[in-house]
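Many introductory courses stop at the sequence. We go one step further.
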Amino acid sequence: MDVFTAFHFVISIDNHVYGFKKVSGIARDIETHQYQEGGCNDYVHIFPKPVSSCKTLSLEKGISQSGFFPFYFIGEHIESLTLEVRDRKNVLVKKYMFHHLIVTKWEVQELNATDNGLLIDQFELQYEEFTVVDISK
């Protein structure tokens, strides 16, 4: 049995593969500037502002089959990574390519000796851009 079947989010960096249970921060947005033209009372003009911040990709509950796990190294630059979203039958549903990432945070969720909680690592990576890969081909 493939160890990654229980992990629906598979990340590939170079030849290394990682599985994660939870991923967030896949988004695109832009701020706009509204301009009211004199004598025009029906609408306002909307113009895009320059992008002023990068986005943060959050990863949680990860595993790896290799000893190389770059997410522990704060400040580590990762040129690109691929994120595959898989369904419960391990069929590829969606695929994303992220470029120019930097590991900005590693955090272990609260450790409590009085409950039976899991030791869960959370990672944050800031990225400059991403694309949605066409998987229909």
